[in-house]
Amino acid sequence: MTLALIRREGETRRVRRTVAVRFRKENVFGEMPSPSSSLPRDTPVAQLAGRDGPINAIRFTGDGKYCLTAGHDRTVRLWNPTRRDPSYPAVADPSSSLSSDLPRALPIQTYTDGHTHPVSSIATNPGPSASTLLSSSDRVLIVTDIVTRRVKRRFHGHAGRINDVSCALGGEAYLSGSYDGTVRVWDGRSRSNDPVQILDEAKDSVSAVEVVAEGARSSGAEAGVQEILTASVDGCLRTYDLRRGRIRVDDMGDSVTGVALTRDGQCVAASCLDGTIRLLERSTGELLQTYRGGHAAGRYGLGCDVSSDDTVVVSGSEDGAVTLYDLMGSGSAATAILRGHGKPTCAVASHPRREWKSIVLSASYDGRALVWASEDDAARWGG
């Protein structure tokens, strides 16, 4: 199995700020569209209602048609976030972000089997048709058939809570990053329940795991896996190059709690505990931009994402806000701050399709998940 062929060779790079930031960004991204037309309005268009307790994770499926939420109520739920639930018709005042009358998105499915503890992370197989759901319940990785809701596999072995999961090779390889400081790679085609490899270079909890397929962040199921990207509370991003069998380490200078790749996979945004999101060019290790001031951080692990047109960086915030930064801007001020949650917003997701680039999902410890969109997209959605 390709994912097991990683030698313990590598280099460590301390991330440095280049003095020619504008020049570097133009080289990486080329001509960038203005983000102004793709920003969500400052009130949500819908809510994903029905959860009981804090929500830990939220993400879109690869085609963007559906989304998933997971939380303390030990369930994973599948939604259509761009369609109203006909059981809850539109009401007179959907504009109030704190109103219980906010329109509800359509629930599709609920997954409960195998979850004996709060669900901390979720993922689906890459490509336009999601068939495999990965979820973590404490130290256990659970593999579920999305359509039938049947649990196909359970993988044990971590010594601490699993913080993040990822899926590769068309849904046949699974990765889990844990509080125990390891990333374990599992072969879904094998009858063995043992990991095919354990990546144990991190010196502290592994907070995020991403599979970088050839060419793009949203590659289809047939795309070849090129690299595994991990983030850790020890302050490092580690890239495992599967073709060369090498490990590259980028020292971010502070604990990393979440990461998001740009569309082409050339850059990564890393959300750090010091309240700074750092945009890094992956091939050189150069720091292209930093974003701070618009979101509160320091106590919780905040997630981040990048819009499908690579113009906006989306961040959660400990004050309950959803903060948007212009990817090409100065980084010292937020482009927009969306307020609708009463407790920390630790999970966000941006729609993967460019035609719906303004749609953003947010999930909070207040037990609410909200859908945000621009006025144009809200009109298409029906809000």
The main sheet orders its strands as 1-19-18-17-16
Low-confidence stretches: 1-5, 17-29, 92-98, 218-222
Shape: globular
Give the helix/strand class. Answer: mainly beta
Number of helical regions: 2
- Rg over alpha carbons: 19 Å
**Head-to-tail CA distance between termini:** 47 Å
Total number of β-strand segments? 30
Main β-sheet description: 5 strands, mixed
> How would you state the average pLDDT, rounded?
86
Helix content: under 10%
Percent in strands:
35-45%
SSE order and pairing:
Elements: E1 10-14, E2 16-17, H1 21-29, E3 46-47, E4 55-60, E5 67-71, E6 76-84, E7 105-111, E8 119-124, E9 132-137, E10 140-145, E11 151-155, E12 162-168, E13 173-178, E14 183-187, E15 197-199, E16 206-213, E17 225-232, E18 236-241, E19 246-251, E20 256-261, E21 267-272, E22 277-281, E23 286-291, E24 304-306, E25 312-316, E26 321-326, E27 336-339, E28 345-350, E29 360-364, E30 369-372, H2 375-381
Parallel strand pairs: 1-19, 2-23
Antiparallel strand pairs: 3-30, 4-5, 5-6, 6-7, 8-9, 9-10, 10-11, 12-13, 13-14, 14-15, 16-17, 17-18, 18-19, 20-21, 21-22, 22-23, 24-25, 25-26, 26-27, 28-29, 29-30
Describe the structure.
With 383 residues, the protein is mainly β. It has helices at residues 21-29, 375-381; strands at residues 10-14, 16-17, 46-47, 55-60, 67-71, 76-84, 105-111, 119-124, 132-137, 140-145, 151-155, 162-168, 173-178, 183-187, 197-199, 206-213, 225-232, 236-241, 246-251, 256-261, 267-272, 277-281, 286-291, 304-306, 312-316, 321-326, 336-339, 345-350, 360-364, 369-372. A 5-stranded mixed β-sheet has the order 1-19-18-17-16, with no helix packed on it. The longest helix has 9 residues, at 21-29. The radius of gyration is 19 Å and the shape is globular. The relative contact order is 0.17.
